[in-house]
Amino acid sequence: MLRQYELVEKVRAYDPDADEALINRAYVFSLKAHGAQVRASGDPYFSHPIEVAGILTDLKLDDETIVTAILHDTIEDTVATPEQIEKLFGTNVARLVDGVTKLSKIEAQSENERAAENLRKFLLALSDDIRVLLVKLADRLHNMRTLHHIKSEEKRRRIAKETMDIYAPLAERIGMYELMQEMQQLAFRELEPDAYASITRRLRQLHEQGGDLVNRIGLGLQLYLSDHGLEAEVTGREKHPYSIWKKMAERHISFEQLSDVMAFRVIVGDPDQCYQALGLIHQRWPMVPGRFKDYISTPKRNGYRSLHSTVIHDSKSRIEIQIRDQAMHAQAERGLAAHWAYKEKSPAEDVKIPWISDLVEILDHAGSPEELLEHTRMAMYQDRIFAFTPRGELIQLPKGATPVDFAYAVHTDLGDQTVGAKVNGRVVPLRTILENGDQVEILASQAQHPQPSWLRFVVTGKARAGIRRFVRHKERDETIELGRKIYEEIVARLPAPLAADALKRAIKTLQVEDADAMMIKIARRSISDLELMEALMPGSAGGDVAPRPLGHRPAISIKGLPPGVAYDLATCCHPIPGDRIVGLRREDEGIEVHVIGCDKLASGVDADWLDLAWGEGSDGGSARLMIILRDIAGALGEMASIMGAKGANIVNLVLAHRDGSFHTFHVDVEVHDLAHLHGLIAALRAADGVSQVERI
């Protein structure tokens, strides 16, 4: 742990004008406030905020940010009050501390609601001052470094998943790649310990076999550039286990098939030399088609600039090369934190980040904690493409984005009013996937409204939030109308006409807000027929009036199907909770539920199509996997062990094909949901005996 004078010296080393008295006052205040509190590791709790402050001094942040880090847990975990903080340290520090403070005392019904509420406050705070985010990221990084001290595996996994889903993407979006990679690495080790151990072991074996191959390639690259008159600093490393695992998952390949496990960074003097170095490298070694990216001419949304290329080296290995100058390297290392270096002295309100505004807008449109978390993750955690408006304005979107996503990215109102689109001057369907460099013109009409079917293909959180907002309003109106029809039918079954004030009395008896709220509860069967009868006309729900039959209720709830409607999960695509689903309804037949991408949907031209979604609490389903195993001893047992360890149950296994040293199995496996299935597939792909895994 940093001592008081060491922390002050670290700050004064880069900021001689820092308020030393302010830092000393914060150090003493925090030390006294936390008192005898200890962390799970047994260390004094006070060591945590000091280590967080130390992380921020490495980023050369201003004294107010350092003080905020020292005080960030005092309101939450001690008897200190916001008024004390403001009186002793000023309004700015008090506002920053409040922004970082978690809502630990919130009364929420679920973990998702607590997480969403914390996220909501956090996003609103950082929209006012980005330094809130910098402190929070440093706080989370230190918590991840000490995560192994927590005894509860469930708690460790929850923290690791939250880090992977929220905080690592946030670090990436502000260009703090080193911090992002460390958080991803620590979270990956906790979430996928088997895959982490397997990849780490293989990297160690590769290193032992190749010796100092990375150093030899790096030195050769540096000498080659120097011989051609270009002085450059070249560093190399093996890629991190999480990065390797992610590439394996994206490309559906095994570790042996992954060739580019080494990455090299070439740092030159200026942007012109970046392109000069790129030309020399491409002249010497063949580039891999489709693996070149120019982030200098089109920087990432977080300001990151660099040239990326993958080449086939003399060693027959694919190597990834990043080329940048010193200024680009500094931006890549420190990201947005560079804007808050002591020397900038920029007021908080001058640093505005467009994507943060998008997240704040999502806050207003999210209808539930689950939606908020989903939309936020979507907005943060996707690779980007670049598209242009007719006026040449650059719009950054995630891969797979459509014209509807583009319209919502320009403005929410434009998204709501979209009726068509032109891409590169040609009219295209709204579900068309945009490519890098496309020019998009949105055709709009004030008479248009968002369509629920758009949810099948939009990929941005902002678009989904906007569409769902409209759908919720529409569903509410339709639900009220349905409830009113059911109400009228129930009233008709009563033994006598209703009194004039019967409805008002029923609303009071059933403890609902108003007539609309009651109709919604009737439609959703939150109020039974008998309860409503008794509330409208006491004594009417006796033996003389038979209740309306409720019909069969399925084990799995599916939104979009009226209660009591039977359905079958299609055996061709094996839908499980988490899949995007549609229903086919034919005359005198039950509803057939398919995954949205199922090939057999083409045969449903004579059927009515229903928009469906899994209901809350849906759990369990059977998915079919094609698994290719190597013909080695214990491969089948290893596969079964992984499935058992992941809590998946094999219900059917068929040897579909045998080809020399490979065996192909079709395996039906019971899982909780899509996330559970993806985790299982990832663990299988990391196994030695598994060559390939695909869902079929």
Q: Give the number of helices.
A: 26
Radius of gyration equals: 29 Å
**Secondary-structure class:** alpha+beta
CATH class term of the domain at 4-190 = Mainly Alpha
Number of strands: 19
Q: Could you say what the CATH architecture of the domain at 4-190 is?
A: Orthogonal Bundle
- How do the strands of the widest beta sheet line up side by side? 1-2-5-4-3
**What's the story with the biggest beta sheet?**
5 strands, mixed
Q: What would you note in describing this structure?
A:
The chain is of the alpha+beta class. Among the domains are: 4-190, Hypothetical protein af1432 (Orthogonal Bundle); 470-536, no CATH class; 558-614, no CATH class; 621-695, Alpha-Beta Plaits. Helices cover 46% and strands 16% of the residues. The chain contains 26 helices and 19 strands. The strands form four sheets. Strands 1-2-5-4-3 form a five-stranded mixed sheet. Strand 8 and strand 9 (426-428) form a beta hairpin. The longest helix has 32 residues, at 461-492.
Topology:
Elements (H helix, E strand, L loop, with lengths): L3 H11 L5 H15 L12 H12 L4 H9 L2 H4 L4 H8 L1 H10 L10 H18 L2 H15 L7 H21 L3 H15 L1 H18 L2 H15 L5 E6 L2 H11 L10 E7 L2 H14 L8 E2 L12 E6 L5 E8 H9 L19 H12 L3 H12 L3 E5 L5 E5 L4 H8 L1 H5 L1 E6 L2 E3 L9 E7 L16 H32 L9 H8 L5 H9 L5 H8 L21 E2 L7 E3 L11 E5 L5 E5 L12 E7 L6 E10 L4 H11 L3 E11 L2 E10 L2 H12 L4 E6 L1
Parallel strand pairs: 2-5, 6-10, 12-14
Antiparallel strand pairs: 1-2, 3-4, 4-5, 6-7, 8-9, 8-10, 11-15, 13-14, 13-15, 16-18, 16-19, 17-18
Helix pairs in contact: 1-2, 2-4, 3-4, 3-9, 4-7, 4-9, 6-7, 7-8, 7-9, 8-17, 8-18, 9-10, 9-11, 10-11, 11-12, 12-14, 17-18, 17-21, 18-21, 21-23
